[in-house]
Specification:
Blueprint lengths: L2 H26 L14 E4 L5 E4 L9 H17 L4 H20 L2 E2 L13 E2 L2 H25 L5 H19 L13 E2 L6 H11 L4 H5 L14 H15 L4 E2 L2 H10 L11 H16 L20 H13 L5 H6 L1 E9 L5 E8 L2 E3 L8 E3 H8 L3 E7 L6 E12 L3 E6 L2 E4 L2 E4 L3 E5 L1 E3 L16 E12 L4 E8 L6 E5 L2 E5 L4 E5 L2 E8 L1
Pfam families: UCH
EC number: 3.4.19.12
Protein name: Ubiquitin carboxyl-terminal hydrolase
Amino acid sequence: MSGFKLYRSRIILSLSSQAYKRVHKLSSQTSTEPEFVNQQINKQIKLNDESFIKIPYNEQSITNQQTIKQETQSTNQNIQKTETNPTQTNEQLVNVVVKSTMQNNNIMSYQHSNNQNVQSLSTIVDKHDLIQTLKPELKKEITIFNSQNKQQPNNSPQQKQQQIQQNGHLIQSNNKAVKKEIKYFKACGLHNIGNTCYFNSALQCIINTPKFNDKFLSDDIKQEFNPKHKQVAVQYWRLLKQMRTTNQNSENPVQLKQAITNSTKKFGGHRQEDSQEFLRALLTCLHEDLNRVTGKPIYKELSADLNKQTLEEISNTWFNYFKGRDNSLVTDYFTGQLLSRVTCSVCKNQSLAFDNFQDLSLAFPNIQGNQITLEDMLKYYLSEENINQYTCGKCRQQRKCTRQLEIWRLPDILVIHLKRFYYKGSMKKKINIDIKFGAKLDISQFIVNSTDKSTLNCQYNLYGIVKHYGDLNFGHYFAECKHPYTQKWYQLNDSSVSEIKPKVSYESDNSAYLLLYSRI
């Protein structure tokens, strides 16, 4: 072999060895879990939009030096047999690296059987996907080597070593794009641990909330925990992580339920409860555990005087005061703002107040027929209503007044509660009126005076529904959710999970109880 060919083979061998080590590093990297969790998890790396490989996490599964030496010798033999064509040499090098990597890391892909009693997890990964991932980097190495060799055939050993290091940094930079966030692309159910369908259905909607849970799966989540109390947030994190990495069809939420019970006694035991009430309690607990404000300032009453400030200035003042006391990942995504105007029927004085909300609770108006649209319910919610007993701030007496709400700030996640359960004195009933709503919702028609930047985008996509069948005495909750990564719709009925067809419009639904929309 000529001196040039021998020199070139050594450089390629060095590059191949570096590429192998980087591929091997992907399977032996340490867990990114917060320090309070001591459990093994399965990590996934997405190579392209259609294929995934699974690398079992095991700190003890490290290839010994003897195996590496044998593979290096095998690689060297393959290099010596190759022609001087850069493209051919590249492809053979990639095949060697892929083969050795697959043998030592037991790379496998999942094939989920439709039979719930059989879990098949032993299909072989397509080597072509991994080849396509590594091939561009090695091509770049050989191209750079060829151009440098032609221009400087008599490089010194120091220059050669510097070039090899530069090529190594180039591959390392390109390989960062291959590493993906740990996600599991499978819908997962929740065990019913005793009349907990109300719990499971609301929880599934939060579990499938887009973007919100990406923060929980990031490495920065530890910094979000409130040092004074974090029990619910930690248990939610553990359950979310388990549902994203599990091979099971369903997981047990008993530890999260116990943590919520410790904070909110109402949801202890095995009584059937209201799903909307539980959703509020869950978000409240998560907010308190993630509140960035560790020492709340003393509470004070705020005023709204249009003679001193504009509506925009009053809104900002009230909202900033709120964030000075309550500021968390939950408020980032779920909190909106309403403007309330109360007008005295005698002196016409207006009392203004800005209130934050985490859901819009819509009552059913008196209608003719058995069907109503979601837009009609929103109009009714924002329409003027009469108040018989209200102390006017100017008259200082009890007056008849009118009150009207306006949407002033829009949250990224809009939760709508349809008040199907009617309570008045001893009278209790469930309202079974059909509601027509779409997979898309435009709120712009309900923005009247607000100029807040959050109202510039009023377009929402439906991603979660909590449904209730039955009556007040005997009923059942379940959820229908769009998976945040696969974008497929699933019916999540406790432990049972089944894929369903997405709908553009829900024409006549008398079971929808909670609707969750995410901003487009």
